[in-house]
Write a structure and sequence with these properties.
This protein has about 240 residues and is of the alpha/beta class. The protein is built from ten helices and six strands; from the N terminus they run βαβαβαβααααβαβαα. The protein has one domain: Rossmann fold. The chain has a six-stranded parallel β-sheet, sandwiched between helices. Helix 3 links the parallel strand 3 and strand 4. The two termini are about 20 Å apart. The mean pLDDT is about 95. The structure holds the ligand O=C(O)CC1=CCC(=O)O1. The site of the ligand O=C(O)CC1=CCC(=O)O1 has 9 residues, from helix 3 and helix 7.
Length: about 240
Amino acid sequence: MTTARAVPIVFVHGTRFSAGQWSVQLTALRDEFPVVAVDLPGHGALSARPWSLSGATEVIARAVDSLDCGPALVVGHSLGGYASLEFARCHPERLRGLVLAGASASTRGAWAAPYRWVAGLVPRVPADRLARWNDRLLRRLYPPEVVEATIRSGYAFHTVPAAWGEVLGRFDAGAMGSVKAPVLILNGEKDTVFRSGEADFARAHPRARVELVPRAGHLANFDAPDAFTDAVRRFARQLSAVG
Ligand SMILES: O=C(O)CC1=CCC(=O)O1
């Protein structure tokens, strides 16, 4: 049962996914914490809404308010992690803690070039074909209980150019300076691209620490759902304890 002191938690999905990305975490944590997962603009139930980073921060802010338990722990993965950094800058009063998962690479870095190329390519491939590829890949790599909610929710390929177009070139470790709350940088051990700025991101914040999910890659909450959830739970309990 959730208690009055339990920190509320808002989960923010990564590229092309939606709230369904967090089905395992929501089920595992909902007895102890007030929890919700958002659909960012252009994704999931908000598929028809145009993407913008400012719109994304408003969606997160409304989710925090909807839980009605004060400032929240926000858990953002990849695109959702960068959106959460922007949320932290715009709405510090609503943030109790931040889990930055797979989002500790500078998007000004050299690795952004291939992502720009992919963003230009995506609209040229029929969305149903991309969806079939993604369904097949997720089903091959993960058990149904981990990915069925994601597959059922579909993918927001149409939003990739706008979302990456706004995020690429915009974030680096300096963004950590706008985060007033404690930060857990939670990365898959094997996520080499999105760990590339990990040390710089951690150094740029006085209350940031890094935790690695062993043997996991970029989609760490699919690769090792229990380890990912345990790390979030430990951090949430620490935040709940300090009140
Ligand atoms: O969301 C992802 O998985 C990858 C990504 C690239 C640029 C960005 O914002 O997210």
